[in-house]
Amino acid sequence: MEDEFADRSFEDENYNESDAHGQRWERRSYTSCSFIDADLGGLTTHGVVFTDCDFSGVDLTDSTHIGSAFRNCEFRRSRLWHSTFRSTSFLGSAIADSRITPAVFDEVDLMLTSLGGLDLRGLDLTGARLRDANLVGTDLRKATLRGVDFGGARTSGLRLNDADLRGSIADATFWTSAVLEGARIDTVQALAYVHAHGLTVAD
């Protein structure tokens, strides 16, 4: 079904408490729009760009997003679980007090995104970009984080118990600020951990 609003731009619109359940949106853009408490469950977006939008209280359960972007958007008390995000960006967005898992994240850009304090246990973020993200107090226990870029991320109190970190990229502070008990790491990361703690490997 074609999207009659494809290639259209919307700005400063109020969609609070609106119902777009099950709709399909393509090649649209929304700037400074409000979707507070809207029902977007089952929504499919393809190439849709949201900039500076407010998704507080929104229901995005069972939604699918391909090649879309949520830039500098706010998600508070939002429901994103059972949704799929492929080649999607959350650049600079803030997500708090929200339900996310279980969900599918495939080639997702979370650079500069605030995920502090969220429960993301068991989430598969393979290959995701988390550069300069806020991960303070975030729970990523048993998560799959292979090849993730953590460069510059704030990771104080980040819980990575039993997570798979092989191939991920991180600064020295990552290895001293996150909780890593039981995490799976590779040889290169093991050496980085040793050096971050001021240890020396000797024969």
What would your notes on this structure say?
- The chain has 203 residues and is mainly beta.
- Helix content is 8%, strand content 16%.
- It has two helices and eleven strands.
- The chain has helices spanning 172-177, 187-196; strands spanning 9-11, 24-26, 29-31, 44-46, 49-51, 64-66, 69-71, 74-76, 84-86, 94-96, 104-106.
- The strands form three sheets. A five-stranded parallel sheet has the order 2-4-6-9-11, with no helix packed on it.
- It is elongated and about 70 Å long.
- InterPro entries: 5peptide_repeat (IPR001646), Pentapeptide-BTB/POZ_domain (IPR051082).
- Pfam families: Pentapeptide, Pentapeptide_4.
Helix and strand arrangement:
Elements: E1 9-11, E2 24-26, E3 29-31, E4 44-46, E5 49-51, E6 64-66, E7 69-71, E8 74-76, E9 84-86, E10 94-96, E11 104-106, H1 172-177, H2 187-196
Parallel strand pairs: 1-3, 2-4, 3-5, 4-6, 5-7, 6-9, 8-10, 9-11
Give the amount of beta strand, in percent.
Answer: 15-25%
**For the CA atoms, what is the radius of gyration?**
18 Å
Total beta-strand segments: 11
* Helix/sheet category: mainly beta
Mean pLDDT, rounded to whole units? 96
Helix content: under 10%
Pfam families: Pentapeptide (PF00805), Pentapeptide_4 (PF13599)
